[in-house]
Amino acid sequence: MQAIEVTARFDPAGNVTPIGFVRDGKTYPVTETGRSWSEGSEFHVLCLAPGMGVCELVFRSDERRWYLARPSAPVERV
Fold first, then answer.
1. What pLDDT, in 10s, does the model give residues 40-68?
2. Global confidence as pTM
3. How far is Cα 16 from Cα 32, in angstroms, rounded to an integer?
């Protein structure tokens, strides 16, 4: 996994929606989000970013850091 910068929107209920991220100095908008889940101190969300395809963004609350990971399972469309 690669540590990245993520821009996200938080709604009044505390739900988080990534709207873009920076990887290797390039900014990618998140055009769609799909399934999200928690595993311990990690929050995972699948998203679609032009030029990247389907991505898995992972927020580790214990580190207060976002990471870019490969999708955990094959995804047809988010």
1. 999 999 999 998 889 999 999 999 999 99
2. 0.82
3. 13
